[in-house]
Amino acid sequence: MNRDVNDSTSPIGVFDSGMGGLTVLRALHERLPAEDIIYFGDTARVPYGTKGEKTVRTFASQDAGLLVDLGVKMVVVACNTASAFALEHLRETMSVPILGVINPGVRTALAGTRGGAVGVIGTSGTIRSGRYQEGLAAGGLEADRILVQECPLFVPLVEEGLMGHAMTKMAVEEYLQPLRDAQVDTLILGCTHYPALKDDIGRFMGPDVTLVDSADALASAAQDRLAELSLLRDDDRREGKLEFYLSDIPWKFQEIGARFLGKPIEEVITVGLDEMEAFVDNND
Amino acid sequence: MNRDVNDSTSPIGVFDSGMGGLTVLRALHERLPAEDIIYFGDTARVPYGTKGEKTVRTFASQDAGLLVDLGVKMVVVACNTASAFALEHLRETMSVPILGVINPGVRTALAGTRGGAVGVIGTSGTIRSGRYQEGLAAGGLEADRILVQECPLFVPLVEEGLMGHAMTKMAVEEYLQPLRDAQVDTLILGCTHYPALKDDIGRFMGPDVTLVDSADALASAAQDRLAELSLLRDDDRREGKLEFYLSDIPWKFQEIGARFLGKPIEEVITVGLDEMEAFVDNND
């Protein structure tokens, strides 16, 4: 299934640890409606956010390898944890441009902050990798204006559909109180699941705090990069095709899919784990 | 590393999707202190409870294959979801006796119920597999005396160490209210993580409800089965060796390990996923 030519008519590839990255697919599709996009969700091995660096790097290599094999012209790493642990490795080993979700979020936050502190929330893996902190510091933010917080319960709460629920309100308060006390004016939602909690988080943080949704920032960065490389597909009349690959069909698949994508997923191709393994030899 | 002889001096193998099965290891070690036990936790691909039947069966075949390759005399499937989806398959394909966690729990519940209803709580996969329901029905329980409930947030709450926390109390109330209303007199804790919530669950259900911890039931069943097969290692003076294999070293590894095992894990051998994959060809 290897397509040799990567020109502007090739699809964009997006991968995520699971279904959360569909928010990124959605933002890409809205911004670049003429582009074909192939999505891969590693639902057999989700989540990545609680796992070790080496494991996440191996998974990410296989995920990107699958997309490259399918002939994509660019790989978008929708998963924050994979971006944190594997981006450099993928750039060194893959034959197509690789775009991560962290730098676009960092740039948006730096452009938006009004002199206050910037908060970052994410999985344990993302926060402990230190990548957001490094990016914000490299952009000139002093250490005392960078506040981070792991929010490990947010992913399961979203997957259970508990937006607006009393349990979610309690978790939001528990995790975000220190950030509110520190008067952050900008908060990076550093995980693809978190935009689903925008209302809960926004209500608690108050109207003066800007929430940075990495999906929008990433879609804009992808557009710029493709234009720069003359790989942009820019045809007003074309409606791009979306293709979905998953390593497992999870319970509540349709429900969770619609929650992130905003519409039902019609067809899915399942990728066996033996097939995934085949990509590691090429890239690792 | 293949040991050919499976006699009473061979170790017992225990596998689980992650660290939760350490509660089973602990119960086995307490009941059979002279036995050597090898534990494998598939921490790179945890959890199993939200994933599809075929995926769980593939993972379970690899997990059991690893243990058989290490020379165990029996494989104990500590994970409820793996027991639900893969037990028959493992029995057909493996060369050693396979013990699951569901039947021992069912038998204990049937022996303990005092004419009321029996409740079962577990992951989505375990509950939807219908295995507990089948087992209880086969034991003579009428359908209207069997109540089941998926509790997907219990695993992340335990992994975050939130026993006794207000969020946990709220989740317990939300999930268990229907079982309390139906006046169950016996409740099967159908997931290796749930015994950590015994206090929260017991307080809500009241002192008249018997909580069935599958770990104890399983340890007792393992003892019976080994005796039956003349494979029991029964030496009062011997202190059995415990060995730990994991496919990923997760964040908070020591903390979570101690929570389930009751003491720190001193040494761990990491098993690469490429190594895990090697076992699927033999068994699938």
Describe the protein's architecture and organization:
The model of chain A has no long low-confidence stretch (mean pLDDT 92). Chain A is of the alpha/beta class and 284 residues long. The first copy, chain A, has two domains: 156 residues, Rossmann fold; 112 residues, Rossmann fold. A six-stranded parallel beta sheet of chain A has the order 4-3-1-2-9-10, sandwiched between helices. At the A-B interface, α2, α5, α7, α8 and α12 of A face α2, α5, α7, α8 and α12 of B.
Just name the CATH architecture of the largest domain in chain A: 3-Layer(aba) Sandwich
Regions with little confidence, pLDDT below 50 for 5+ residues of chain A:
none
Strand content of chain A: 15-25%
Span from first to last CA of chain A? 21 Å
Indicate the mean pLDDT of chain A. Answer: 92
Give the CATH class of the largest domain in chain A.
Alpha Beta
Radius of gyration of chain A: 18 Å
By DSSP, the count of extended strands of chain A is 10
Query: What is the domain total for the residues of chain A?
Result: 2
For this structure, the CATH topology of the largest domain in chain A is Rossmann fold
Q: What percentage of residues of chain A falls in helices of 4 or more residues? A: 40-55%
